[in-house]
Specification:
Layout lengths: L9 H5 L8 E4 L5 H12 L3 E6 L2 H11 L4 E5 L5 H13 L6 E4 L11 E2 L2 E2 H23 L4 E5 L25 H22 L6 E6 L2 E2 L9 H11 L5 E2 L1 H4 L1 H8 L10 E3 L2 E3 L8 H15 L5
Parallel strand pairs: 1-2, 1-4, 2-3, 4-7, 7-8, 8-11, 9-10
Antiparallel strand pairs: 5-6, 11-12
């Protein structure tokens, strides 16, 4: 347990920590929690590889934080061949990777869209990061202590009753945008837990987190009236975090010295919580890993 809580900011949790010499990759660094994570990590001395769906957006994020300790990288998690290319560019840099923060995501698009035959949220939020992490295990293992930090959500609880509906990953049996978002967020957490199990005995750790509710552009795929309604509902509510506080938990997991040997846990407000529901289903986590390999096999070699 830490002394931090819901109101702690990313700057608070890194106060006094010198990240000089460390390299961190942050997906979705162009706005919201990713941009704040980029800002604070570079402020503390880390070199951050900041990804965006285009190189121009990634470069704009690096320019915005005003630090030379950042490198823009084009990474579209819906383009798995492009994910492989981006990971190869990271490995070609020859640096150990001290942390991989899987932050990028897509929330509840109103229409069903398929990516390589898979529903878009599952494909982007989970499988894109699955492919990326697979190709970055080598630089993570080369670091003194590599960390994989996966941004999940408390909305994992809105996943189907079976947890991951392997028989409907293409939405052919019905598309419920919110339920499939929950499924993708459950997949994020289960992936982190299974990765932690597979990395046991190495210096690589993996943890998942719920960042809290914050007004970001995560819901950019929703219909405009739904986005406006969500923002009005959240306006001036005490449970809605400002971006600097919402980014704190992922920054804490990536940097806190006390977590060097902590792996396979779910965090909220910079502290671990007891897993509930399908988060406790180790068999589901293993089955998800196997299905993820089957779905992305051509991009894993």
């Amino acid at each position: 347990m830490s002394a931090f809580g819901p109101s702690s900011t990313a700057e608070d949790v890194t106060a006094g920590i010198d990240l000089t010499g460390r390299t961190v990759l942050v997906t979705g660094a162009t706005s919201g929690l990713g941009l704040e994570t980029l800002r604070v990590l570079t402020l503390r001395g880390a070199h951050v590889i900041a990804t965006g769906r285009t190189l121009e957006r990634a470069q704009a994020a690096c320019d915005e934080v005003g630090h030379r300790r950042s490198t823009p990288l084009a990474l579209d998690l819906a383009d798995w061949a492009g994910v492989v290319t981006a990971a190869a560019a990271v490995r070609a840099g020859g640096r150990p990777l001290d942390a991989l923060i899987c932050n990028a995501g897509l929330m509840a698009p109103p229409q069903l869209t398929l990516v390589s035959g898979v529903e878009e949220q599952f494909a982007v939020n989970h499988l894109g990061h699955f492919v990326l992490c697979h190709h970055l295990v080598e630089p993570l293992r080369a670091a003194p202590q590599g960390r994989v930090v996966v941004v999940s959500s408390a909305l994992y609880s809105s996943a189907p009753a079976v947890g991951i509906d392997f028989d409907n990953l293409d939405g052919s049996r019905g598309y419920d945008a919110q339920q499939m978002y929950g499924q993708s967020k459950l997949a994020n957490a289960l992936f982190a837990f299974e990765l932690a199990r597979r990395m046991a005995g190495t210096r690589v750790t993996a943890n998942a987190l719920h960042p809290g509710v914050s007004n970001t552009n995560l819901d950019r795929a929703k219909a405009g009236w739904r986005r406006l309604g969500a923002r009005l509902l959240a306006w001036n509510r005490p449970w809605v975090k400002p971006v600097d506080a919402a980014a704190a938990t992922q920054v804490y997991l990536a940097t806190a010295p006390a977590l060097a040997e902590v792996s396979g846990h779910f965090f909220q407000d910079c502290n671990p919580i007891v897993p509930a529901g399908q988060l406790r289903n180790d068999a589901l986590a293993a089955a998800l890993w196997d299905r993820s390999v089957a779905l992305t096999r051509r991009y894993l070699s």
